[in-house]
Amino acid sequence: MNKAKFISFEGIDGAGKSTHLGWFADSLRDQGKNVLVTREPGGTPLGERIREILLSQPMLAETETLLMFATRFEHIEQVIKPALQQGTWVISDRFSDASYAYQSGGRGISLPKMEQLESWVHGRFQPDLTLLFDLPVDVARHRLSANVTLDRFEQEKRGFFEKVREAYLSRCRKYPERIVLIDASRTPEEIKKDLGQAIQSLLLK
Fold first, then answer.
1. Residue positions forming the annotated binding site for ATP
2. Does Protein transport count among this protein's keywords (predicted)?
């Protein structure tokens, strides 16, 4: 029997990843898998409280980065690893690639610092698959404009999201064996075809 898999969904705000996450989880359940859907920042009671602060309170980029990795440590140890050990597939709305994109790419935290934190918090533990929803920044910002309220990250300027997007694409080029690029500018039906193929590949591994 295949071991439980860990999957992360990534992309700039407005790329539509959250829209497809539920469908992806339900498709796995249709295949007989137990599935846990979680998110970052958050995923634990402590993480959810820190999430509220991260999304609303101004802070230094270094503070933001440290809080992200602190909540991630709790998330991994309290939620993700125990679920995988019990045979439950885990889907997380964001993981460490988001920190490389937002805190390093967007905020300018150096890559060596990010790598040190990543090594300390989860070492070689990585998702089995990362689905990166990619979309031009202008399109993503237009989608966000429909929201009644925007959090601290969603309120950032266009230049910030350009840097975040490029950092994501850089991660995709660096780890092509793990990260699958999803063209999020297409119709939901076209995107679901790609996601369905990703599910089949996971089931065959």
1. 11-18
2. no
